[in-house]
Design brief:
It comes from Flavobacterium polysaccharolyticum. Pfam families: cNMP_binding. By secondary structure, the chain is of the alpha+beta class. The protein has a domain of about 120 residues: Jelly Rolls. Helices cover about 50% and strands about 25% of the residues. Strands 1-8-3-6 form a 4-stranded antiparallel beta sheet. Strands 2-7-4-5 form a 4-stranded antiparallel beta sheet. It is globular, with a radius of gyration of 18 Å. The termini are far apart.
């Protein structure tokens, strides 16, 4: 779990014991390409560490899938709304590539946070990071054109074109696949 150590170091420095205590809470999951890590309607009690792979988060409405984000490893994901409100999750998380996933019970993570100021700082900074990324996406849908949303997505994640089907990219930026084709054609002409 070297990637977990690398990932957590972006947010806080943990000593060996703190990292060892955190790492011990994570248990492997058997998830293959196109499998779901999480499905809407389930009650979430775990936090996920994606050690290897690419994932999409989406919602299904009236038979249509709406992709809200992509997750690139290494990263941690927590469905906080479901955990905190004790309600079923609204989202699905699907592996788009071969992956290596782990989960940890959220309450156990919280207990560890109570005993370690550094682990508490780690999750505070991580949640802050997630909040800022969410706000950035929200502002983009209000302020940016579809083309700018596409170009920003590609600039932030150049590997996306090779790893993610175009219909998911279209959904993520809020356009139909045919509109994405026109946007891509126009972007390639520049």
């Amino acid at each position: 779990m070297e990637n977990l150590k690398l990932f957590t170091s972006y947010f806080a420095e943990l000593n060996e014991k703190e990292f060892s205590d955190l790492e011990a809470l994570f248990h492997p999951m058997n998830i293959k390409k196109m499998d779901h890590v999480l499905t809407e309607g389930t009650f979430v009690k775990d936090l996920y560490f994606f050690n290897k792979g690419t994932f999409r988060v989406y919602h299904l409405k009236e038979g249509e899938e709406f992709t809200t984000k992509f997750l690139f490893s290494p990263c941690i994901y927590a469905e906080l709304f479901s955990i905190r409100k004790l309600t079923p999750t609204f989202f699905n998380i699907q592996a788009l590539t071969d992956c290596d996933c782990y989960k940890a019970n959220f309450r156990e993570i919280e207990k560890l946070m109570e005993t370690s100021q550094n682990i508490s700082r780690l999750f505070l900074k991580l949640y802050e990071h997630i909040y800022i990324k969410g706000k950035k996406r929200e502002f983009s849908f209000i302020l940016d054109s579809q083309t700018k949303r596409y170009n920003n997505l590609i600039a932030e994640n150049p590997q996306i074109i090779d790893q993610i089907p175009l219909q998911y990219i279209a959904s993520c930026i809020g356009v139909k696949p045919e509109t994405l084709s026109r946007i891509r054609k126009k972007s390639n002409e520049i």
